[in-house]
Amino acid sequence: MSVQSYKDLIVWQKALDLVEIVYQVTRVFPKEELYALTNQLRRAAVSIPSNIAEGHARSSTRDFHRFLSIARGSLAEVETQLLIAQRLGYLSDDQLAPILSLQIEINKMTNRLMAKLAPNP
């Protein structure tokens, strides 16, 4: 299958799934977290598919690689913030496990795509 659009990328599709899940779980975070952890976690999650899309739309492979690197950084940010939410008692182990599993899957997919885009030595 030829990738005509960023929408064809499974990693982008899964990143959208992650955004949806993050929004669902943060709906029940305490109200005092609305402009703190809730907002920060949502913004980091939204950044992942956004950077994949923007990088794919750029005119060079080098740019795409750079934007994938930014998306990977946002993945680490999301993971960290989810772990903080768990420590604060906002997420249970049962809630956290499938989200982290998806985050790990997206990270692996991003790493593989970056490796394919890297110039050969």
Automatic annotation (TrEMBL):
<dbReference type="Pfam" id="PF05635">
    <property type="entry name" value="23S_rRNA_IVP"/>
</dbReference>
<dbReference type="InterPro" id="IPR036583">
    <property type="entry name" value="23S_rRNA_IVS_sf"/>
</dbReference>
<protein>
    <submittedName>
        <fullName>Four helix bundle protein</fullName>
    </submittedName>
</protein>
<dbReference type="InterPro" id="IPR012657">
    <property type="entry name" value="23S_rRNA-intervening_sequence"/>
</dbReference>
